[in-house]
Amino acid sequence: MAVKSLRSESSPAPSRKERAAATRARILASAYAAFVESGFQATTMPSIAERAGVAVQTVYFIFHTKTELLRAVADAAVIGVSDPQPPNLAEWYQAAVSAADPEQAVAAFVAGVASVLDRIGPLTSVLASAAALEPMIAEHLAHTEQLRVEGYLAFIRHLHRNRLLRPGLSVKVATDVLLTLLGPATYVAFTRDRGWSHNQYLRWISPTLVGLLIKDRPS
Q1: 123: which DSSP letter?
Q2: Contact (Cβ atoms closer than 8 angstroms) between residue 74 and residue 119
Q3: For the whole prediction, is pTM greater than 0.90?
Q4: Rounded CA separation 157/175 (Å)
Q5: What are the Cα distances from residue 36, in Å, to 48, 81, 86, 128?
Q6: What is the pLDDT of residues 21-52, one digit of tens each?
Q7: What's the CA gap between 103 and 216, in Å, rounded?
Q8: Kind and range of the H or E element at 181?
Q9: 73 Cβ partners below 8 Å, 6+ apart?
Q10: Could you give the CA distance from residue 175 to residue 152 in angstroms, rounded to a whole number?
């Protein structure tokens, strides 16, 4: 009697759409590693294709140019690949704005943003150098920074509406503090330049922001 394959019984062959998504994800992961390792100018589309195990024509077919590929890599670092979600729709953001305790709200926001910074941090110098050469990247960076400002401002306004900010602390100043201390430049300065681990940064930044932004509790 013929023996059926395990694949046919328990795991059907992936669809064309699933194979395409897997190929795209593999190219993005390979491009991320190549850009971080070699920079924008030195990285080539053939080298990315070789890392990903695909034909270079496949890379060009999906992403067209190296500039568009870098932009896609940056987007994937922020919103993910398998289930892309803008930060304001992510579970961690919803947890931050729904937490009754202000310290828990800040901790949830910090943890979520820091997970993004952990992915985008290694790309910051690559994006900066590419922006000096490619207007598309410069425009993309300006757009993503504006989105970051809007997201942080929305969280600070949430704290303000619930009367959780320190007395005398304006929404603008609070937003500026959050943008600076919980930003890619500060994250990279600590985790790359000063050698802190991701968890060390988390253990420092969360209570620091609580102390700077949140009003004292009644004793």
Answers
A1: G
A2: no
A3: no
A4: 9
A5: 12, 18, 23, 12
A6: 899 999 999 999 999 999 999 999 999 999 99
A7: 11
A8: helix 171-181
A9: 28, 31, 32, 35, 123
A10: 6
Query: Is residue 178 within 8 Å of residue 187, measured between CB atoms?
Result: no
Q: What amino acid is encoded at 54 in this protein?
A: V
pLDDT digits (tens, 9 = 90+) for 174-196: 999 999 999 999 999 999 999 99
Task: Identify the bridge partners of residue 165 per DSSP, sorted by sequence position.
Answer: 214
Place of tokens 């790309």: 123
* H or E stretch at 10: helix 6-10
CA distance 43 to 51: 11
Using alpha carbons, list the distances in angstroms from residue 169 to 26, 38, 101, 166. 46, 43, 19, 5
In the numeric block, which tokens belong to residue 65?
């140019």
Q: How far apart are CA 159 and CA 94, in angstroms?
A: 13
Helix, strand, coil percentages in the chain from 3-state DSSP, rounded to 5: 75, 0, 25
